[in-house]
Amino acid sequence: FKKQFTSLHLKHFSVYQLLTDLKQQRKESGKTKQSSGQQNLNTIMYETLKYISKTPCRYQSPEIVREFLAAMKDHKLTKAEKLQLLNHRPVTAVEIQLVSTSAWACQTELGAALTLDRAE
Predict the structure, then answer these.
(1) How far apart are CA 64 and CA 1, in angstroms?
(2) Which among 75, 66, 87, 68 has a CA at the least distance from the CA of 9?
């Protein structure tokens, strides 16, 4: 049974968690000799972890993600917009508008400020 995906949105937190788990498993296995393909995969994992460790996902947990999504439920945001807010955690109203101009076009500055508090 094969599923076709037209798009796949990943939370930085999910990728970070997966890669750190894989890294730990590799340390525990102690396998030293690796194929060139495996070395390439290690490089990709290293570079991805290096980048993603500098994002707010490093401080997130499954509970924080659930709370954020629950807080965003009443706002008319697409899944992609919620994902952008979760991954980038904007801190100013301008940054929020850059993520979701359509959702914020009709809202007041107070509405953006309230959502800003929830995104932090």
Answers:
(1) 34
(2) 87
Q: Is the pTM of this model over 0.85?
A: no
Buried b or exposed e, range 60-73, using 16+ CB within 10 angstroms: beeeeeeebeeebe
**If you count DSSP H runs as helices and E runs as strands, how many of each does the chain have, helices first?**
7, 0
Tell me the C-alpha distance between 39 and 41, whole Å: 5
Please state the separation of Cα 11 from the chain's center in Å: 3
Residue 114: pLDDT above 60?
no
Is-contact 78 85, C-beta < 8 A? Answer: no
